[in-house]
Amino acid sequence: MKVLKESGFNAEKIVENGNKFLTANGYLGYRGTLDEFTKEECVGLNVAGVYDGVKGKWRETINVFNPFYLVAQADNIPLAARGENVLSHEISLDISKGLFDRKTTFNVNGATVTLECQRFVNAAEKTNLCSRAIISADRDMILTLKVGVDTDIWELNGPHFKDVKTEIGGNRIIACGVTQELGYSVKVYCDYSSPVEEFSGGFGIIKADIKKDEKFVLDRVAHVLLGKEESKFDKYDSAYKAHVNEWKRLWSAARIEIKDDDRAQFALDYSIYHLLILAPKGEYSIAARGLSGQTYKGAVFWDTEIFMLPFFLGTLPDCAKNLIKYRINTLPQARKKAREYGYGGAFYAWESQNGYDACSDFNVTDVFTHRPVRTYFKDKQIHISADVAYAILNYYNHTGDDELMFSGGLETILECAEFARTYSYYNHIKNRYELLDVIGPDEYHERVNNNTYTNYMFYLTAKRGVELAEKYACAYPERFKAVLGKLPENIIENLKNWLQKLYLPQPDANGVIEQFDGYFKLEDVGVEEVRSRLVHPNEYWGGSGGVATATRVIKQADVIMLFNLYPDLFSKEIQRANYDFYLPYTEHGSSLSHCAYALTACRTGDKSGAYKAFLDSAEIDLRGGGKQWAGEIYIGGTHPAASGGAWMTAVFGFGYRHKET
Amino acid sequence: MKVLKESGFNAEKIVENGNKFLTANGYLGYRGTLDEFTKEECVGLNVAGVYDGVKGKWRETINVFNPFYLVAQADNIPLAARGENVLSHEISLDISKGLFDRKTTFNVNGATVTLECQRFVNAAEKTNLCSRAIISADRDMILTLKVGVDTDIWELNGPHFKDVKTEIGGNRIIACGVTQELGYSVKVYCDYSSPVEEFSGGFGIIKADIKKDEKFVLDRVAHVLLGKEESKFDKYDSAYKAHVNEWKRLWSAARIEIKDDDRAQFALDYSIYHLLILAPKGEYSIAARGLSGQTYKGAVFWDTEIFMLPFFLGTLPDCAKNLIKYRINTLPQARKKAREYGYGGAFYAWESQNGYDACSDFNVTDVFTHRPVRTYFKDKQIHISADVAYAILNYYNHTGDDELMFSGGLETILECAEFARTYSYYNHIKNRYELLDVIGPDEYHERVNNNTYTNYMFYLTAKRGVELAEKYACAYPERFKAVLGKLPENIIENLKNWLQKLYLPQPDANGVIEQFDGYFKLEDVGVEEVRSRLVHPNEYWGGSGGVATATRVIKQADVIMLFNLYPDLFSKEIQRANYDFYLPYTEHGSSLSHCAYALTACRTGDKSGAYKAFLDSAEIDLRGGGKQWAGEIYIGGTHPAASGGAWMTAVFGFGYRHKET
Q: For residue B364, what is the domain's CATH number?
């Protein structure tokens, strides 16, 4: 498998490379930064599913203390990639083993010194991460290494820790702190293979003399422990062995070979790597920017259920089960959210932090007034509940796991349908139920009526939920009765009646399905025309004054997305008509969009369009270059949903085509 | 009656005085400008109900050619109020007779020359307006007067005329043109009492020698004729006599005497003047800025039905009938608009130009991006249909005019109710009809559900409409049957069923009725706090990013307005609770707001609040000083709805209180 490499040092690529060269083990993520870096260079050791909120700021996942801080000096000359004495510099990521490597050579008073550091986040142990530094020189040299657990960390909405303390015990440096909001005690410690002296302020000194061409090796074995957690590894070599073995297992489950296309092969390998490093090691889920940092609050979006879950279902079903359990476990919060808005059933969090909806009513800041703008993602993007139900049904289709269905699965599906039923209004003139005042996947058009994606997704949620209920009523009457007991009275009957009359938009004479009521009446202009109307490059395209609002230009696949989830709902001709219609209006302002078109392109025969969209999705984090900052807000990170979309395109798109021909 | 005067010339007040000293006769309006002024000083001769649209610009009423252009010279020295040789200058408006007067004295090479011009728009003849200029000096003097019909006119969204020609015939100068859009031929001519020489480009010269202390008098009798219209007056004195007689009649119908309060007396007189000068002379209606210009496109808003009609009902019922007929006559367009949006019944134009809805979907320009903002006045401010129906019912209550009810009145009322019925959705969970996605009188909160004003207004429209229908079914079965034949099948039955279940928001434990679903959950801040958040003084407060949007701050009376239209619907305690609750949140960003609070203040016992709000409403055009320009758009003009509100406060507010005590 190709190793990702980058030679030479470019300060402007530090943030981007932090994402591109990310290592992670599904629980801890360590950004692709260098040993001598600090928060200035966005060093981050991100933890999945552990959130903290500081008053007046966004609640987000925590970044913990950095155990791998290291600044080496040779004969009192610093060995740093930013230095003027650098002869060569290279970083690499071996995605076959989840290994990050940096190698830098320096001119130290005429001699050449080489600093090499390997690093991995242990795939075999969720709390462990290790690094090995190797220093050599072409003459005798005195080395001084400043090492320690850096507690002055990069945080977007921190500080998240109080009572921060560092201490030393033997060759172990330990940093402890307590999260502000929920009082989690977090301990990060690092064992050094050489004696640490002069400990002060979290940092110590390791000294060594090396002879010409001799290698000085420093192993660091670090752990991130919450509460009473313990960790078993204490040696680099044994940790490395377990890690590499686990990666073998992961790739054996997930590798896909592509014939005669190195570019596509690597793009797909790299995409799969980014999914494998997020495979949850417990009943938690995956954030929209994975473990690359705190962007989007570390919250879980529909990205996981709709764009990533299929990969795990196809490769690591236990991980898929964890993702599903996460949603089932947060059913109580989804019920609570529904009640708060005056509805029945379960209204899942748009930005889930263990069920809590982290989404703000003001999710956008106006670039002109610097004031928050009222957005409706939280209260109107109701399709999230249909997406969750779809995921559970998808899981069930793959696994036939009745146990999970009786442990909340069925209950969740039916409650998601019930939510939509109570959200709907009856159009007494047209004699049908309608879903009014929603936002579809295309967020640029707010508060629309009868969004095709939303209506169909809830229709099928209710239909499949009722069918499953009726199957279970026959097969397991007692267990089914127990589930019914947790649900509103007459739910099955009510849903069946509702299904009879729920409005489902139909294709027009050209085969095109209107994205929502009135979409066809919007201004008929393309993406570039709309882009040219921007006054400020970071303007929000939606909202009442956005450039896209009154036009047909959409942020991302919307009607098209429905086809990907239910490929047999409409004929290929209809799908192609919609693909051809909507593509020119699609900005792809979301990383979820390209793969959605790629999949439909595959099904409907646009080979070249499919290939291009596949690469756009698969290479998104390889290419980088996307927006890392919106004004003063960091919005960078990896795009695992696009990685999942690339995988789906390969398997369900190209794979399916292949089978067919 | 006090005469409004202003001494001294101040160039900065030219535009404001144009409104403040307006003369009009319900059809033609001539701004309070000076004879020597041109379009630079916003001279305007506005015509009621005649619209023209130029491609790509807003359609608006026309300003026609100015017959009263006059620049005098004495011994070759110009006599202009802007000149450095001005000794004194005064303008005045005698509201008892609708007479505008200007008197300016000049130093002409050491001598004193006086220029006086009287002007009126003939109340007794809709097409006629007259002016008399008097010039005298304290030594012999040679006068040269440049006079003519100025075709280079002030237009906001013009040019509205093509084929413009001027000609002279005897002592008559004539300007003709044809409107761009509908091809109306417009002729403006002026007869001069002295010979006109040297005619060129629309202007001629009148020469005269005056002796010391002798007066030179020039009469101008002008006419504005559309199509084949004719005009009967040709002498200043006879026109003046008819005009003054008509004003006697008007005031005898409308005067209200206030005891021991000169300020309130004049403010009310002045308000009534501004209503009398708008009394329509045919089946047309009154624009929101009256005849003061083209602001708001010269369109008719709910202002007329709700704020002005009561005055005419109480003083000049024939004019009230004209206003009602205007809406009945435009029922076909209201039906058409309803169909265009997918509804039944009649959806009246938010900005009516003889029934055509001139309201744009983009009625606001963002001050930061200079792009249009999608606004919802046209498609969501549905209460306009309830307002129209209320006005017809109000007219009927005053007049008992069954003929009008059978000539479209009843049909219109029922169609307005039917519109709301078809607009409503059935909430199948709460078993009630709801009016979703509307804008109430408070326009800062867009697309709200169950706006109290809107729901009650339509409820009462339907209820009173059905009651009237049932009365007529008994009393005039044949005539009623004929009306029913023009209406949708089963309309009465349908409305009766709908009324059973239409949701009517009720007072909460504190007696306060929520303005719309969720209003109480908005940020609880007052007007000044919200104002302090403005970044640009001309920002729109509503829309998705507006300062008021996510707060309780409202543009104008909303719930309170309902109480004024139906004072017996809720107890005085409830009305007071709402008055106290909503007043601190009310920006009074509309001139309709003060009088609404004044009326409720009268009913609920806040004497001082009522008096202050009455003066705020009655003196609005006297005080001036309001915004005349929004960016590059002229938004100035008179505020006849506020004048009507002042009248209502005097009559229904203070008058009613007086009766009571």
A: 1.50.10.10
User: Does B477 map to a domain?
Assistant: yes
CB B17 within 8 A of CB B5: no
Residues in chain B within 8 Å Cβ distance of A374: 544-545, 549-550
Residue A287 near residue A299 (C-beta atoms within 8 A): yes
Determine, yes or no, domain membership for A466.
yes
- Please check whether residue B281 is in contact with residue B318, taking contact to mean a CB–CB distance below 8 angstroms: no
Please name the residue that has the structure tokens 């003929």: B403
* Cross-chain CB nearest to B545 (options A434, A436, A545): A545
Contact yes or no for B370 and A427 at CB 8 A: no
Mutation for B interface: A421, A544, A551, A552, most B CBs within 10 A = A544
Distance from CA of B407 to the nearest CA of A (A): 29
Of A429, A433, A543, the CB nearest to B545: A543
Tens digits of residue pLDDT in A340-379: 999 999 999 999 999 999 999 998 889 999 998 999 999 9
Q: Is B88 helix (H, G, I), strand (E, B) or coil?
A: strand
Confidence at residue A538, expressed as pLDDT on a 0 to 100 scale = 86
Q: Decide if B373 and A544 are in contact by the 8 Å CB cutoff.
A: yes
Which of B505, B540, B561 terminates a domain? The answer is B505
Those residues whose C-beta lies under 8 Å from the C-beta of residue A371, and which sit 6 or more positions away, are: A365, B533, B535, B545, B547
CA distance B546 to B385: 27
> Is residue A472 scored above 80 in pLDDT?
yes
Q: Is B520 on the interface with A (CB under 8 A)?
A: no
Environment class of B490 (CB within 10 Å of its CB; exposed 0-12, middle 13-18, buried 19+): exposed
Contact between residue B534 and residue B547 where contact means Cβ atoms under 8 Å apart:
yes
Count, residues in chain A = 661
Distances (CA, A) of A337 to A340, A382, B657: 5, 11, 50
Q: Could you tell me the CA-to-CA distances from B137 to A573, B82, B129, B142 in Å, in that order?
A: 91, 19, 27, 10
- B162 by Cβ neighbours in 10 Å (0-12 / 13-18 / 19+) ranks as exposed
**Measured between CB atoms, which of A368, A436, A545 is closest to B543?**
A545
For residue B423, what are the domain limits? 301-505
| H helix intervals, B502-583 | 527-532, 559-565, 572-582
pTM: 0.94
The string of pLDDT tens digits covering residues A86-118 is 999 999 999 999 999 999 999 999 999 999 999
Q: Which residues of A touch B418 (CB under 8 A)?
A: none
* Distinct helix (H) and strand (E) counts, chain B: 22, 26
Residue B413 lies in a domain: yes
Question: What is the H or E stretch that residue B423 is in?
Answer: helix B410-423
| Token pair in block for residue B60 | 């608006």
Cβ-Cβ pairs closer than 8 A, A with B, add up to: 87
d(CA B21, CA A7): 79
Among A residues 61-120, those touching chain B with beta carbons less than 8 Å apart: none
Distance CA A400, CA A412 (A): 16
Of B184, B207, B233, which residue constitutes the final position of a domain?
A: B233
Residue A495 CA, distance from chain mean position: 33
A319-333 as b/e: b if 16+ CB within 10 A: bbbbbbbbbbbbbeb
Mean pLDDT (whole number) for B38-64: 97
Together in a domain, A107 and A185: yes
Q: How far does chain B reach from its first CA to its final CA, in angstroms? A: 28
pLDDT number for residue A545: 84
Count of structural domains, chain A: 2
CA angle at B463 for the pair B436 and B497, rounded to the nearest 5° = 70
Pairing of strands B86-94, B77-79: unpaired
**What mean pLDDT value characterizes chain A?**
95
Q: What is the CATH number of the domain that holds B166?
A: 2.70.98.40
